[in-house]
Design the sequence.
């Protein structure tokens, strides 16, 4: 497993480090993305989008 450090900005502190473990399947999907579009995927944007979608699905399920 690969471990990557992502810097997150926080208003109270200059920066925080968050350790994220990336599974091999994720790395392979990122490589496919890069081969198709020619650029590396932005993990923070993908994760943000995923969380928004997940939250909306959960909200719709409870309403």
Sequence:
């Amino acid at each position: 497993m690969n471990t990557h450090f992502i810097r997150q900005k926080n208003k109270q502190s200059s920066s925080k480090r968050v350790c994220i473990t990336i599974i091999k399947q994720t790395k392979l999907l990122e490589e496919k993305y890069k081969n198709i579009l020619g650029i590396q995927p932005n993990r923070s944007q993908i994760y943000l989008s995923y969380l928004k979608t997940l939250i909306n699905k959960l909200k719709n399920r409870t309403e």
